[in-house]
């Protein structure tokens, strides 16, 4: 599974924003030619569940769709890129601001 | 061209196949020493070749194909909705696999394109590597362009450009061009790069040498660090001496060693340098702490300055209510309203309204309205405005004492 949205140092349950970011990052790799099956392998999600996410991202203007060889393909919009930039930056801040767990105390700052 | 068919669910033994080989689902092929197919090898579902395979091209459909030894494909591999597992080395012209590709040995192709997971136990050499999901490689990676949507965990790299959506951890190596990472970048050993752009966190655990560095969240470098420009949105920590041109930090910058710049240092928050800080221009909105700091042109600090042996600049200005400990040395030194400093050395020193200083040594001095200085030693002139106070009578001298720094 793509751990794009779990890039922090500590494992945690994937939240819905993590899933959106993962899907957007995988779509971005295909430079406008992302097919749903390819994205499903990259994002580690079944196609039916992915379709729901893709529809939502299309509706929010974070993704756009086109047609290539008679099949739909997807690309990230500038608004989608803005979401990704904000998402990763916020993830970094959350990591800085979260209190260290007992095992990490004294060892977080290298 | 002739065609050899292995029906689904059957078991066959082959050595050489003239023409194409079509393998039905759930078939298994035992191999004499090496299976050589002069045409294409096509697998219609799950299948296993229990030994090395050589063919002109390879196609898989909706299954997992396991090759027990080396796989040599003179043209392309196309695995549609399929995974491919290779028990030995892999050589091909172009590899395009939808689901997953696992390789036990070294892998070489012009291009690897994998939708899901690319997992290599040996080295990988290619012009281009594109992975939608996860890319793991235990051996060295040599490539021109590497693009991964999800995460990357690789050993030593020699690549031109690297673009990763989520997380990348690499042992070290060289990326001659740009590294672009959405989430988190970690290099465990020494790294050389053209440029580094990370949305979230960059953690360089060895020495690092590169051009521009732009990090949205946090930046950490453990070993000696050489760079052209460093821009950090949040917090930057440098644990060894660092050299570069310009630094811009939105929040906080801490260095354990010296920081030597040829250009400007700007920080919205605070800058803390345990050793020497050198540059051309300084602008700090919050706190500046250093053993000593020397800037060739200007230094402006908005919050506080704390040095052990001084802050020096051609033009030095402390903002309103700024507190300074340690000597201030300048061509000109200006303290804005209510700023407070200890000893000040300069050609021209000016205390703004209600500013305070302990001792001033300068050619010309102005003490503005309601400002206070304990002592003033001057060469050319001193102007004490109405309501200002110099606690000891100003002392005119022919020559000033040597300045610190």
Subunit organisation of the chains: heterodimer
Q: What is the 3D shape of chain B?
A: rod-shaped
State mean pLDDT of chain A (0 to 100 scale): 83
The largest sheet of chain A has its strands arranged as: 1-2
Largest interface (CB < 8 Å): A-B, 37 and 40 residues
Low-confidence stretches of chain A: 1-10, 106-110
Main beta-sheet strand count, sense and barrel state of chain B: 48 strands, parallel
Could you tell me how far the N terminus lies from the C terminus of chain B, measured between alpha carbons in angstroms? 85 Å
Poorly predicted tracts of residues of chain B: none
Pairing-aware structural class of the strands and helices of chain A? Answer: mainly alpha
> What is the number of E strands of chain B?
48
Helical element count of chain A? 4
Number of E strands of chain A: 2
Q: Would you kindly provide a written description of the structure presented here, covering whatever features stand out?
A:
The complex is a heterodimer of chains A (110) and B (405). With 110 residues, chain A is mainly alpha-helical. Helix content of chain A is 50%, strand content 11%. Chain A is built from 4 helices and 2 strands. A two-stranded antiparallel ribbon of chain A has the order 1-2. Chain B is an all-beta fold and 405 residues long. Chain B has a 48-stranded parallel β-sheet that branches. At the A-B interface, α1, α2 and α4 of A face loops of B.
């Amino acid at each position: 599974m793509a751990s794009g949205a779990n890039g922090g140092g500590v494992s945690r349950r994937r939240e819905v924003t993590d899933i959106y970011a993962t899907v957007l990052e995988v779509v971005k790799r295909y430079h406008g030619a992302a097919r749903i099956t390819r994205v499903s392998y990259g994002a580690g999600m079944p196609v039916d569940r992915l379709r729901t996410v893709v529809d939502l991202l299309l509706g929010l203007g974070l993704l756009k769709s086109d047609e290539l060889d008679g099949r739909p393909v997807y690309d990230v919009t500038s608004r989608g890129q803005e979401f990704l930039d904000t998402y990763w930056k916020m993830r970094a801040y959350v990591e800085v601001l979260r209190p260290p767990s007992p095992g990490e105390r004294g060892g977080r700052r290298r | 061209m002739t065609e050899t068919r292995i029906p689904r669910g059957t078991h066959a033994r082959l050595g050489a196949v003239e023409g194409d080989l079509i393998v039905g689902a759930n078939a298994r092929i035992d191999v004499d020493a090496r299976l050589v197919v002069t045409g294409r090898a096509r697998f219609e579902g799950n299948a296993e070749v229990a030994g090395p395979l050589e063919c002109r091209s390879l196609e898989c459909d909706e299954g997992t194909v396991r090759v027990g030894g080396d796989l040599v494909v003179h043209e392309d591999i196309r695995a549609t909705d399929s995974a491919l597992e290779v028990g030995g080395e892999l050589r091909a012209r172009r590899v395009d696999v939808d689901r997953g590709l696992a390789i036990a040995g070294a892998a070489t192709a012009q291009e690897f394109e994998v939708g899901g997971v690319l997992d290599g136990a040996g080295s990988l050499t290619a012009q281009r590597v594109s992975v939608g999901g996860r890319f793991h490689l235990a051996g060295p990676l040599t490539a021109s362009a590497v693009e991964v949507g999800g995460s990357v965990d690789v050993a030593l790299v020699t690549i031109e450009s690297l673009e990763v959506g989520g997380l990348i951890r690499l042992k070290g190596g060289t990326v001659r061009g740009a590294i672009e990472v959405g989430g988190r970048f970690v290099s465990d050993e020494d790294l050389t790069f053209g440029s580094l752009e990370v949305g979230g966190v960059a953690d360089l655990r060895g020495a690092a040498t590169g051009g521009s560095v732009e990090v949205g969240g946090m930046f950490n470098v453990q070993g000696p660090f050489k760079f052209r420009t460093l821009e950090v949105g949040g917090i930057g920590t440098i644990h060894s001496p660092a050299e570069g041109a310009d630094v811009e930090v939105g929040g906080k910058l801490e260095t354990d060693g010296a920081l030597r710049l040829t250009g400007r240092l700007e920080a919205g928050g605070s800058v803390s340098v345990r050793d020497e800080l050198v540059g051309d221009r300084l602008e700090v909105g919050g706190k500046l702490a250093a053993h000593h700091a020397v800037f060739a042109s200007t230094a402006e600090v908005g919050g506080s300055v704390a040095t052990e042996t001084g802050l020096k600049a051609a033009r030095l200005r402390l903002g309103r209510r700024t507190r300074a400990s340690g000597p201030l040395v300048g061509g000109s030194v200006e303290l804005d309203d209510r700023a407070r400093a200890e000893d000040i050395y300069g050609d021209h020193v000016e205390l703004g309204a209600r500013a305070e200083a302990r001792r001033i040594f300068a050619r010309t001095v102005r003490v503005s309205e309601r400002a206070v200085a304990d002592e003033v030693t001057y060469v050319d002139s001193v102007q004490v405005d109405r309501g200002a106070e110099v606690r000891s009578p100003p002392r005119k001298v022919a020559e000033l004492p040597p300045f610190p720094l």
